Input
Amino acid sequence: MSGAAGRTARAVAAERPIAVIRAARDRPCTLLVCRGCCCGNPRKHPGTDHAGQLERLSTAAADSVGRFTIRTTDCLGPCDQANVVVLQPSTEGRRHGGWAVWIGFAMDDGLTDDLLRWIDQGGPGLAAPPAALELQFIRAPGVDGTRARGRRRARG
Output
């Protein structure tokens, strides 16, 4: 046997973490957009252009030439604060003390403008958030003793 077929699974797997570590070295800001049961739901928030907002964010990510990425997920948990987005810092932002920032009630164009402006300036760890955006920061589930969907932990 020669080439990849001749190597053991362990040898092949041992090579993979190196690529992951290199990729993490230059990770851009990442915006995680909830589109689960409540977020992005036109029945819950009929006056919001959910599809238009996601398209605008996706276009900005594509235009950023790799400085910003966007992902969607089914449910982030705090449904009572829908629409929820989480801005994760770039690797450089994390080196400067940036942490993931949870933002609730992310529905209007002004918030989207502020979010994109902050990302363009570097995001968490590299630039201060716009004051209006900061007013919409929420705690991540579990940070304040709650679990997903805003339920309190059982006391025993």
Confidence is low (pLDDT under 50) at residues 18-22, 145-156. The chain has five helices and five strands. The two ends are 60 Å apart (CA to CA).
